[in-house]
Specification:
The complex is a heterodimer of chains A (126) and B (463). Chain A contains 4 helices and 5 strands, in the order βββααββαα. By secondary structure, chain A is an alpha+beta fold. Chain A is globular. In chain B, 55% of the residues are buried. Classes of the chains: A alpha+beta (126), B alpha+beta (463).
């Protein structure tokens, strides 16, 4: 029985939208006060769908409560991956941040709980 | 006839990584080269704190300890080379400690190379006066306000001095700050004799180095389907078989735990990078958007087709400055209303300190278990019956931070009901650091290579 977490943002909890974790896997880390989240799609269909729907805007909106700056998305179609670079994501960076997760290690797992706004998502092959 | 691939295993992804991994990798991995990557962004600041108490400290002590264990293997296996950045802020002292251990294990003739030149702390004011721009590379702020508080300033060196040290006969190369990928590229260039403008080959080996630099993250660590990874307890650390054409096969010790797949390797390629078409190292700008991944066998992923371009004429400088003191304490808060009680307890603790005259430059109350790890983004539905309360402060005044550390215990008797866990001890103040990245002209930086026998390094300790 899977347990569905709740969200601070109602809009991201829409049950008709697919959970990112059903279409892709991810890991995250830090560089100074920037975090990056690498998102790897399960297959071509997932990659193509996410390329349209997992936009910089959607990711920025999801992490807005963290007080983040700009989000930039890079595409790696050769390995079905995206790299999201998030400015000011770590409350001052690994050295100055007082947060437990000062290095942004949990951001990737958090992003997988995003319900990506969009219809007709493919079924992931996880 | 094509040269055999070079088997490079990385046995450490940071200082504090598993102590047995590099030993097992060397014993069972049929390695040509063992690399050990110990230096995260802030590790040198911690080493500078240790060196301030002891001028002979400032390197990663795990490395000489490891050599003690590996000595019998190094004596038997004439081939394996070791390349590590464990020299930290004091590569020569590290070499002396290693030399003494090797000499004591009848390996006094073993050549050990030391790479220096990354430590530029002593040159910054001269550079600054000469008009070199040392502004923060992300924010553009000038360095002057933190200049007096700098504890270390190191330039990321590249693969060339490592290659030089190996070509001069070193079995072991100890460096300070070098780019992580250069630990792999250096031995590959020494083995294959690649030209320093052979961008596709330099890029290919650098990509392999990037994939293995964080140790077990390439072999099933952090994998989302962790419950499908065989024997995570016995996870094997990564090996890159670098080929003469610059391609590489990522694998691990046969029979070890973990998983090497397209997925685990792809995820590691996008780990802690910015623009994937321009992953910058001192040696080459690597383009990860051109490479191909192919599962060539069980736990074997071939990485080919990586392209690269010439690097910029600047090198990255990573400086760290003192930024006061910090401390952090934890208590468990249980029962109905645990989250409200935890929040209140954090507030009460800080309010008591305020009434005692202690205000802090920065403070944070976190309720772990109630959505505070990724605050405001991810939380479980419904009330938690257990919360870990974490309170953290930072301030220039050490005495105030010390007083903060004493304020946790009284909460157990004078706070809300259901507070547990004080037996884990009082927190203690730690130095807080700020990170200062900048770009400096390559021409200003000189790397140096010094190769001596282990016995000579050991004797230099006496002078």
């Amino acid at each position: 029985m899977s347990h569905d977490p709740g969200f601070a943002h109602e809009s991201h909890g829409h049950p008709l939208f697919p959970r990112l974790g059903d279409l892709a896997h991810a890991r995250s880390g830090d560089k100074g006060n920037r975090a990056n989240i690498g998102v790897v799609a399960y297959d071509e269909a997932c990659y193509t769908w996410l390329r349209q729907h997992l936009t910089e805007h959607v990711v920025a909106d999801y992490f807005r409560p963290l007080g983040i700056g700009a989000v930039q998305r890079y595409e790696l179609p050769n390995i079905l991956a995206f790299n999201f670079v998030i400015e000011d994501a770590l409350g001052g960076g690994a050295s100055r941040s007082l947060r437990l997760d000062s290095q942004g290690k949990a951001l990737g797992v958090a992003l997988l709980e995003l319900r990506v706004p969009g219809r007709d998502a493919p079924r992931g092959t996880s | 006839m094509p040269r055999q691939p070079l088997r490079i295993g990385n046995g450490a992804g940071f200082w504090g990584d598993n102590l047995d991994a590099p030993y097992l990798l060397t014993r069972d991995g049929r390695l040509d080269v063992l690399t050990l990557e110990y230096l995260a962004e802030l590790t040198l600041a911690i080493l500078s704190h240790l060196r301030s108490k002891n001028p002979q400290a400032g390197y990663v002590g795990d490395f000489p300890d490891l050599l003690q264990r590996l000595a019998p293997h190094l004596a038997q296996n004439e081939r394996v080379q070791i390349v590590t950045n464990g020299g930290g802020l004091n590569p020569s002292a590290c070499a002396r400690a290693c030399g003494a251990i090797l000499a004591g294990s009848h390996l006094g003739d073993l050549p050990l190379g030391v790479v220096t030149g990354d430590d530029v702390l002593g040159r910054l004011s001269e550079w600054s006066e000469a008009g070199v721009n040392l502004s923060h590379m992300d924010t553009g702020e000038p360095i002057a306000p933190v200049m007096e508080r700098l504890v270390c300033a190191n330039v990321y060196l590249g693969a060339r001095p490592i290659t030089d040290a190996l070509l001069q006969g070193s079995r072991i190369v100890v460096t300070g700050r070098v780019a992580d990928a250069s630990l792999t590229l250096g031995p590959a260039c020494a083995a294959f004799g690649w030209a320093w403008d052979d961008w596709p080959r330099l890029a290919g080996a650098s990509a392999a180095g990037h994939i293995i630099e964080c140790g077990a993250q390439a072999t099933g660590g952090l994998w989302h389907r962790w419950d499908d990874v065989p024997d995570l307890a016995g996870i094997g650390y990564p090996i890159a078989e670098v080929h003469e054409d610059g391609s590489a096969v990522i694998t691990k010790v046969e029979g070890s735990g973990g998983l090497v797949s397209r997925g685990t390797v792809a995820e590691q390629i996008v780990y802690e990078i910015d623009d994937p078409s321009r992953y910058r190292t001192p040696d080459v700008d690597v383009d990860f958007t051109t490479l191909k991944l192919y599962e060539s066998g069980p736990n074997q992923v071939k990485v080919s087709g990586t392209t690269g371009r010439p690097p910029s004429d600047t090198l990255k400088l990573a400086a760290v400055y003192r930024d006061g003191w910090t401390a952090s304490g934890l208590l468990a808060v249980v029962g109905r209303g645990a989250e409200a009680k935890a929040h209140a307890s954090g507030w009460i603790l800080l309010e008591r300190l305020r009434r005692a005259g202690c205000q802090f430059a920065d403070s944070l109350v976190e309720c772990l278990g109630a959505g505070c790890v990724v605050p405001g983004v991810l939380r479980s539905p419904g009330p938690a019956f257990e919360i870990v309360l974490r309170v953290t402060v930072r301030d220039p005044n050490r005495a105030a931070v010390e007083r903060f550390c004493r304020e946790f215990a009284p909460l157990v008797t004078s706070g809300p009901s259901g507070i547990a866990g004080y037996a884990t001890g009082r927190p203690s103040p730690r130095p807080a650091f700020g990170y200062w990245p900048a770009l400096v002209p390559r021409a200003l930086v000189d790397s140096r290579v010094e190769v001596r026998t282990a016995g000579e390094w050991a004797r230099s300790a006496l002078s």
